[in-house]
Every structure is written in structure tokens, then in C-alpha cells.
Amino acid sequence: MRPKFRAALAALFFAAPTLASAQAASRVIAITGGTVHPVSGPVIEHGTVLIRDGKIAEVGAQVVVPAGAQVIDATGKVVTPGLINSNTTLGLSEAGSPQFSGGYNDTRANGTRGVAASFRAWEGLNPASTFIAPARQGGVTTALVAPSGGVIAGQAALINLTGDRIDDMVVRRANGQAAVAMLAAFNPGAADASSRGELLGRLRELIRDAQVYRATRAAYDRNASRTLAAPRADLEALQAVVDSTLPLLIAVDRASDIRAVLDLKRRDKLPVRLMLLGASEGWQVAGEIAAAKVPVFVGAMNNIPVSFDALGSRQENAALLRAAGAPVVLVSNGPGDGENYNVQNIKQEAGNAVAYGLPWSEALRAVTLAPAEAFGVADRVGSLRPGRDADVVIWSGDPFEFGTRAETVLIRGVVQTGDSRQDELTRRYAPKANR
């Protein structure tokens, strides 16, 4: 076969899935008869969700289904936006680390003295990760791909769980930026510090120096400025943090540490938009978090302290924070690696949060619209409103019940099909009588 013909044939072969996806997204799809939870509005019994060109076109009880539309009957089922897991390393790590079974781990950068603000975690994403399919089958359509390690771990992005190119998977903000948060950790060891006081001093210095760098770029380029707290690339990356366009998501658990983080803005007047991750003892300072209007990313599966910083862990944390008025986003904090190979367990987190006092509607919001709002992409995902991406899940029943299945999952208007690695292994090792 001639080289040019081979190249043309290969191009046609590899373009076929993309073409099929584009054709699928351009169709009109009507999901009819289900109990629709738009999240941005009241529940609609026997509702219809109309999808056109991969976007939500109409939602209501009296929607007229156009002739020729593909109709998906959801009678007796529950229809929601796709779930968002807001703290994962999905696609960045498999098989633990390279020393295990030839695996890989691209979750962290070396940085300088614990600072790696310029690290964009999603750039190392593997779209072919075997962990993506089961997450999608579990009703998760969007996930935060987050870095770890250091006091400033780097930048995180939201991705849709479909596609074979990173750029096509990223859910971008209105300004076109991929980054939705800068990840940090209240951990003296990660900051090359010996104490909490030293850590706080480093954080203040780092943010102040990012402001100094902005005002003295020309002098910095001439090597005519004093030494700053981080390399140029990291100071550049921190500009979006100090102008409050990129939130600083800080992993912190102890109540006194949460107060110290809140004081960075309240008392020290640092120009940052804060969000809290973990917050095991957040319920003890719920009023202060609510007053600061700081979103809190918490789990509901674990009440066993993992360290002395989390001695006050309790499963009512999410409910108590929300009752105080704090914006709550649910993430995984239970066993089974809900940040990686069990990303789909986010629905169990929501179910547990309901069992421990969080209203059902608030739990649904905490895994859909609340994270979309916190990350600045509510115009794209998180609700079933006209103009949003058609990320929709049809559930066999209450999505937070253990036995409920995500029967149909659409991402950007395309029905997701295909087996996961678990499906393949189940078929391979199932008894012959069950095949």
C-alpha cells in the first residue's frame, strides 16, 4: 500500500469517532416522562428535557417534542444534571506509582520550597485512563483534576469525562481560561516550614511578593529587584490569585487552622478568594465560614480522625455547615480512593450527607450546581437550564440510594456507551453458566 494512501486511510479511521460524536451531538434528543430535577429551579414531574446541538434547549412539563427527535423514555425514572466530583486525580495516576505494575503518577510537581503555582495538573491527563469509564457509568460527567503536594500544589481544571483530546475535555470559564482553582495545603511539612507560624509567614510573603512582582516586572526583567519568594513562572501563575480571578482552594482541617486561613483575608487584607477543602472540624467554626462566604468542600463518609488535625471529624459536618449558611460542595473523604479509581462514589457521599442531616435537594446541589458556581462555570454545567451543556443522567431511582443505577448518561448531548475495564473483567471471569 502506498504511503500517501495509508496516511489517508489512517486519518479517516481515526477521525471516524470524532465525526460520529459531532453527528450525535447535532441531533435533537427529547428525554420525556421523568421526574426532572433542574437544580436551578423546582422539580418537574413528568417533565421533558429537550436537547439540541449538544445544549439544553428547553425544560418543562409542556415542552413540544419536534418531529424526528430521538426520544428517550424516562417514565418512572429520575433525571438530573451530571454529577460533579470536585476533588480528583482522575487521569493523572494509575496503579499507584511507577514502581507498581509500571503505573504512573502525574499528580505533583517538584516546585521550589513547596511552591509549584505554575504546574497545570490537567496537562498530564491521560484521556484513556481506565478509571474514567466507571466514573462516567456512575453518573459523574465532570471532575476536577487537581494537583497535590507542597504548600502551593498548582492549578486544577474541570474536565468532561469523554473525549480523546485534553483540550476537548476541559470545561473552560467564560474568560477562556482552563484553570478553575489554585490548590494549596495548610501543612508546614509541605511548605518547607517547621511550624504553623512559619507556614503562615511563608503564605503572606508569597502573596505579597506576587503583588510586588506585578508592580515591578520591568525591574525584575533587568535583574534590578530584590529576591522574591518564588521563581518567575510561579509568580506569574499567582497573578490570577492576587487579582481574585482564580480562587485559592486550601486543604485545611483543624478549627484553629481554618480561622488562621480566614484571617489571611480578614485581618491581613490579602487579596485572595478563598475556598476550603476537607475542613474536618469546619462545623466548629461554621458561623465564621458562613460570614466570610467561603465555599467549603467536605465529605460525609468518614468520621474517624485521620490525624490530630481532624479529631473533631463528624459525618454531620456538611449539614451543620449548610445550616449555618456556608456554601457546601461535597467531595469524597471515605475509604476506597474516591479521588481516583472510585470517583463515582460521590453519589454515596451525597447519600450519607442526607442520612446525617443535609436536605436532599441541598445534597444534589452540592454535587452539581454548587461546585459549578464555585469554579465559575455555572453557565456551562451543573444545572438543566437552557443554554447549558447537555450533561444529563437518567437514574433508575433516587440517585443517592445504594442500589440505584445511572441507566443513561449524556455528556454534551451525546449518549455515552462502551464498557469499562470492570465490565470486561466481569465477563472474562464470570462462571460459564452466567455468560
Q: How far apart lie the N and C ends?
A: 41 Å
Strand content: 15-25%
Number of domains: 2
Averaged pLDDT = 91
Shape field: globular
The helicity comes to 25-40%
Count of β-strands:
18
Oligomer: single chain
Which CATH C-level class of the largest domain is it?
Answer: Alpha Beta
CATH evolutionary superfamily of the largest domain: Metal-dependent hydrolases
Output the structural class: alpha/beta
Q: Which stretches of 5+ consecutive residues score pLDDT under 50?
A: 1-23
Cα Rg: 23 Å
Main sheet specs: 8 strands, mixed
Number of H- or I-type helical stretches: 14
CATH topology of the largest domain: TIM Barrel
CATH architecture heading of the largest domain: Alpha-Beta Barrel
Write the layout of secondary structure elements.
Elements: H1 3-26, E1 28-36, E2 44-52, E3 55-60, E4 70-73, E5 78-81, E6 83-88, E7 93-94, E8 104-105, H2 132-137, E9 140-145, E10 152-160, H3 166-169, E11 179-185, H4 196-215, H5 217-221, H6 232-237, H7 239-242, E12 248-252, H8 255-266, E13 274-278, H9 286-292, E14 296-298, H10 317-323, E15 328-330, H11 346-355, H12 360-366, H13 369-374, E16 392-395, E17 406-411, E18 414-415, H14 421-429
Parallel strand pairs: 1-4, 1-5, 6-9, 11-12, 12-13, 13-14, 14-15
Antiparallel strand pairs: 1-2, 2-3, 5-16, 7-8, 9-10, 10-11, 16-17, 17-18
Helix pairs in contact: 11-12
